[in-house]
Amino acid sequence: ALLALSVSGPAVPFVGVPVLGHLYGTISTIPIALCSIIMNLFQVPLTILILSSSDTEKKGDSFLQHIVHTLKEPVVWAPVLALFLLLCNLHIPAAFRSALQLLGGTTGGVALFASGVILYSYHVVFNRTVILSIVAKNIILPLLIMALALWLHTDRQTLSLSVISMAIPTASVCVILAVQYKTAGQEIASILFFSTLFSILTMGGLLYYLAG
Question: What's the predicted TM-score (pTM) here?
């Protein structure tokens, strides 16, 4: 589950804002919002559910109890609550909104700082699992998206936005979940590190090709 999230979950909510926003302007809010919704409402909750089900301390729990445990996680219920408020057209008072925006603005930096501490603690490795995951995340997934976009005859801008969004390196939430559930912490931390490092080459190469 963690490897699947590492490969399929780019750090678009954090990295996408400065990268896609700088490259494509206001139109980049669409893929950033879509990636954030898909990750926070589907990928992360499903990963937590699988990790909870395989937790040895919760082996005797029923499937319903695992779902309840998943829904109790703030990383799950907070995005669901936000989407519900949005769909109901309910607005947070301006005073609270400014405070929450100030708090929310720090989350990206805090997540990266926490990931840095974890990387230092676990000592990254470069084994077969890490290599295959990086190749899948940084190269195969963007190329598959490109092939799909070409097959669907999408316009140039949509194709470029889609490919670069999927080429963004692994999200830090993967490492946080690995540490929380004591599962493959070193491997996931290594994937995050090398995925970010090699994205300089892979994203740069894709941008050069798409701009040609």
Answer: 0.83
- R_g (Cα) of the chain, nearest Å: 18
Query: How many Å apart are CA 21 and CA 32, to the nearest integer?
Result: 9
Query: By C-alpha distance, which of 1, 58, 10, 2 is closest to 185?
Result: 2
Q: What are phi and psi for residue 10, nearest 5 degrees?
A: -75, 155
Instruction: Give the model confidence (pLDDT) of 67-109 as tens digits.
Output: 888 888 888 888 888 888 888 888 878 778 777 777 777 776 7
- Is residue 173 within 8 A of residue 111, CB to CB? The reply is yes
Residues in the chain: 212
**Distance between CA atoms of 205 and 209, rounded to whole angstroms?**
6
CB 1 within 8 Å of CB 51: yes
Please give the full DSSP string across 110-136, using - where no structure is assigned: HHHHHHHHHHHHH-----HHHHHHHHI
Which DSSP helix (H) or strand (E) runs through 46?
Answer: helix 44-53
